[in-house]
Amino acid sequence: MYTYQDLQALQAQSLKLQGWIRRQTYSPELEKTLRRFSSWEVSELIFRVNQSTFRGRLAADPSLPAGEVEEDGRQRWFSLEEINELRRRMKINRKTLLPPRPQGKRAIRAAIANFKGGAGKSTVALHFAHAAALDGYRVLCVDFDPQATLSHSMGLSDVSEDHTVWGIMARDLIRETDRMNSAVTGAASGTALPQRRLPASVRDMGLEDLRVADFIQATSWPTIDIIPSCANAAFVEFASAQYRHLNPDWSFFAAVARYLDQIPDDSYDLIIFDCPPAIGYQSMNAVFAADVLYVPSGPGYWEYDSTTSFIGQLSEALEDLDAGFSQVSFPAGNAGSPKAFLDVRFLLTRFEPGNDLHRAMYDAFGKVFGDRLAEHPIELTRAVEQSGRFLSSVYEIDYRNMTRETWRRARATFDRAYGEFRETLIKAWDEMEDKA
Ligand SMILES: Nc1ncnc2c1ncn2[C@@H]1O[C@H](COP(=O)(O)OP(=O)(O)OP(=O)(O)O)[C@@H](O)[C@H]1O
Ligand SMILES: [Mg+2]
Question: For the AAA domain, which residue ranges apply (predicted)?
Answer without folding.
Answer: 111-311
